[in-house]
Amino acid sequence: xxxxALAIDGGQSGIRARLRTLDGPPVPGRPVLQFPxxxxxxPIAAQVADVVRQVVEETGATLGVxxxxxxxxxxxxxxxxxxxxxxxxxxxxxxxxxxxxVTSYAGALGDAPGAVVxxxxxxxxxxxxxxxxxxxxxxxxxxxxxxxxxxxxxxxLDAVMRAYDGRGPATGLAEIVRADLGDLEHAxxxxxxxxxxxxxxxxxxxxxxxxxxxxxxxxxxCDDAAAELARSVETGLTRVGLAGSNSPxxxxxxxxxxxxxxxxxxxxxxxxxxxxxDIREPAANALEGAARLPFLAGDSPLRGLxxxxxx
Length: 311
Prior knowledge:
The chain is α/β, with parallel strands linked by helices. It is 41% helix and 20% strand. It folds into two domains: 3-105 and 285-310, Nucleotidyltransferase, domain 5; 111-282, ATPase, nucleotide binding domain (Nucleotidyltransferase, domain 5, 2-Layer Sandwich).
C-alpha cells in the first residue's frame, strides 16, 4: 500500500492505533488495533515504538507519519525525537506527539473554546480559551488524578480494608475485592505483585459505580469523584478566562463518566455553577484527535502543546 499515517491513542488501560491516509481519513478496511496499556513508570517512546512495529508487522503498511496522544507524557519534544529515531527504519519521517489531554480535546471540541474532562484510569482536564490553555490534574496516580478510575478504585480498596479491620462501615465492595484478590488479610500482596496493579486498581471503579445506588460507601466515593472533577473544570475555565461565560462548552469523556452516578453528580455541579453550561457530546474520540495533530491551525492554542519532529 502507499505511504500511510498512523494515529495512536495511548492510555494506561489500553492503546488504540489506526492507519490513516497521509491527508487524514482512515484507510478503508483497516480496523482499530488494540494493544496493552502504557506503563508510565517506563520510557514511553520505546513502548510506542513497539506498537508501531507491531502495526507494520500485522498490516504490512509503509508508514510516513506517526501522531500520538499519550498518557503520562512529560517531555514531548524528547519523546517525539526518541520515537522518530526508533522508527526511522520503518520509514517514519515525521512524528507528532502530545499529551492525551490534547488529543482528547482535539477530538471532542476541535478548536472551540471550553473544557474537556477525560476520566479513565487517570484523569486530566484541559481548558482552552482564545489564546490560553490550562491543564488541570493529570499528575499520575502517585500525586493526583483526583476523580479518576484509579482514584475511585483506590478509595474502594481503602474502604474495604477499613471495614475489614473495624475502622469503617461495612460495604458490599468487600465481596468484590475478595473475589478478585483473595483473602483480604493478604490482598495487598496480591495487588502489589501485579505489574499492572494500577489498571487493576482502576478496574474496581466500575464496581463502585454499579453499587452506588444501594451501597452508601460506594455512593459517597462517587459523590467525591464528581466533586473533584467539577473543581477541575471550574479551575480550568477560570484560568483561561471563561469562568464568566454564561454557557461554557464542556465535554465529558472516559469510562468513569459512563457511570451514571458520577456523570449525574458532575453535571449537577456544573449546572449549579453555570445554569446555561453547554455539555456537549464529543465530535470525535481521542484517536481521531491524534490523527488531527498534523492538521492543527497555525493559531490554534493546541499547537503550542504539540511536539512535531521530522519532515
